[in-house]
Amino acid sequence: MEDSQFDVIIVGAGVMGSSTAYQAAKRGLKTLLLEQFDFLHHRGSSHGESRTIRATYIQNHYYPMVMESYKLWKEAQAQVGYNVYFKAQHLDMGPFNDPVVHSVVENCRKHKIPHQLLNHQQVAEKFSGKFNLPANWVGLSTEYGGILKPTKATAMFQTLAYKNGAVLKDNTKVTDIKNDGGVVVFTANGEKFRGKKCVVTVGAWANKLVKRISGVEIPIKPVETHVCYWRIKKGHEGKFVIGGDFPTFASFGKAYVYGTPVLEYPGLIKAAVHGGRLCDPDKRPWGSVVMMNELKEWVEGIFGGVVDSSEPVVKQSCMYSMTPDEDFVIDFLGGEFGKNVVLGVGFSGHGFKMAPVIGKILTQLVVDGETNEVDLKHFRIGRFQMASKI
Ligand SMILES: Cc1cc2nc3c(=O)[nH]c(=O)nc-3n(C[C@H](O)[C@H](O)[C@H](O)COP(=O)(O)OP(=O)(O)OC[C@H]3O[C@@H](n4cnc5c(N)ncnc54)[C@H](O)[C@@H]3O)c2cc1C
């Protein structure tokens, strides 16, 4: 395969690279997907058992991307023949005067997302007492929630990419990308691949690789974070399972807590803090959970004592790649590479749900040089003040 010519070389086979490989191969491009570790490894951002999909956002631009993704998740499932999406309602909650809660409600109104704004008693009634909100909190309930299975979904995109003719290669770390009118991609194994275009979807390694190839420092910070699962007390397990009325949820109080109905581990409910500690993705600390006391307090209070808040039973470590404004980076690298290198990075802990549309957008940028899915101004690298050598 050495020195082979591809239409597009995709670097990084997390969910974003895998979804892009599927979309590119489906559009008939000769596609190569390269991954530094084993496929479906647990050292990046796309592994594990559950991710939330929800339509409620404080920013305007994500709603159409989420809605297109719901459609594309279902199409991909139909192609592969198994499910990675499991339907649930979604509940956002927080103090009634919290600006985030206000923005989310505003956005629901703006996009005409059917929703119910509920006081704490109405939340208790709607969800049969499963959420015990403080008296000054409100809940925002919508039908647009659900769980995605991350490892399975990433595998699904890789399978579909392969079925559509893509070449997939793991244990192949990209060390450099050079411009020769197209791109030449160099690997740590001493291989060299030529492509007309290249898509960089390297998650928390974005800053390292982009700096190496272009000298540009994009301000994407790798953050180690944790998912926690808590034991539901005896006799209450059935209340929290997927398929009933228990929703995916996000809570905007002292800590931003999120979670999903019981699906992956019977008897355990997921509740975790959106946050973590800066890390080097190549020297992971495998450290402790941040804001554990706040999380325990939340589990005890909001679940009204029916979930054991003494310690999480399962903790899983994962990485975010955070931009300063938590918006994604979807753009051409520019400089000497012009439109030949496309970046899809900085998904800031909330990208999984939109992986199908992101794969579609990145492929449009490769093939068409533009996208009609979203206004890219929210995702341009030019929005950051950057140190640059070029
Ligand atoms: C705990 C946790 C909970 C989350 N919850 C949600 C949620 O509920 N809803 C939601 O929508 N999103 C959620 N997210 C965010 C979502 O999972 C990420 O946005 C998404 O997985 C990012 O995928 P990625 O492909 O960009 O990164 P990754 O999955 O990290 O993939 C990047 C890949 O590039 C490879 N790579 C890096 N450098 C090189 C190189 N030089 N050569 C070759 N390969 C390379 C890496 O090994 C890696 O496999 C969560 C994330 C975490 C960690």
UniProtKB/TrEMBL annotation:
Keywords in alphabetical order: FAD, Flavoprotein, Oxidoreductase
Oxidoreductase listed as a keyword: yes
GO molecular function: flavin adenine dinucleotide binding; sarcosine oxidase activity
Swiss-Prot/TrEMBL cofactor(s): FAD
Residue span, FAD dependent oxidoreductase domain: 7-365
Enzyme class: oxidoreductase
Keyword hit for Protein transport: no
Domain of life: Eukaryota
EC numbers, comma separated: 1.5.3.1
NCBIfam families in the cross-refs: PRK11259.1 (NF008425), soxA_mon (TIGR01377)
Similarity field: Belongs to the MSOX/MTOX family.
Protein's name in the database: Monomeric form sarcosine oxidase
